[in-house]
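uroporphyrinogen-III C-methyltransferase, Novosphingobium barchaimii LL02. Tokens?
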Amino acid sequence: MVSNSDSGGRASNERKGPIGKVWLVGAGPGDPDLLTLRAARLLLNAGLVVHDGLVDPSIMAMARPGARLVSVAKSRSRHTMRQEEINALLVSEALAGHDVVRLKGGDPFIFGRGGEEAEACKAAGVPVEVVPGITSALGAAAAAQIPLTHRDHASIVSFVAGQCKGLSDQDWSGLAGKGRTLVIFMGVATAGDISDKLMADGLAPDVPVAVVEKATRDDMRVLRGPLAGLADLVESERVQSPALIVIGHVTAEADNTIRALALEAVQ
Ligand code: SAH
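Tokens:
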């Protein structure tokens, strides 16, 4: 537990000597109730919040009035700020004596480029603290009632990035299959390539998959179908980002109501 006197409650613009500190803070998958207490406390006290596009507006609304909020949203087509520029911004603000809350969707160290931001700060002599967040993989699994591990179905879980850069054959071989659950981030645009690769690797076309769109948000959708129909499902349902693809038998374990909705959706 964090007391008021330690780092958990102290990300205001107060000066502690010449150099500020950067907190890399996970904002969780969307629902503000899924913030950690430490993240909420930092956000409530912060004088400067640098946030990315995945952070839900309802969470940004928790920042204190008058706080400086800087969006460094990235999208596939338009990068508002390149990663190097984000790193430089964090470093320059800290060197100017400002404490910075760097708020990132999910967990900062799961496909969030938090590692690069931490490295940049450390290289510049800026102190960094990391506050974990509930990654969207866990948020989506909970919200859609998909147990990522299950005594009868899966004892290995893999988190994989599905954007083009990570799509080599070697990366995908053996990731899904008996006893395994595969969770794919950033895979909506490449869903067809992914299912082709997995089936070429021997995965049965009827292995169940779930697509969880906008997990934990009010407009969340859970869509289900067989692996062979993944690309069609994504296209016919016009799945929007952010969404996760979960592949494996555990996706058949979900709540009946959600499954009924999904069957409707795939018809
Ligand atoms: N650090 C984040 C992941 C950043 S990569 C985390 O731990 O969750 C961005 C990808 O995360 C998106 O393309 C999507 O695949 C996934 N994602 C993030 N938030 C999501 C949400 N609310 N619902 C579904 N997928 C989400």
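Residues 29-30, 54, 104-107, 110-112, 135-136, 140, 185-186, 212, 214-216, 241-244 surround S-adenosyl-L-homocysteine (CB under 6 Å).
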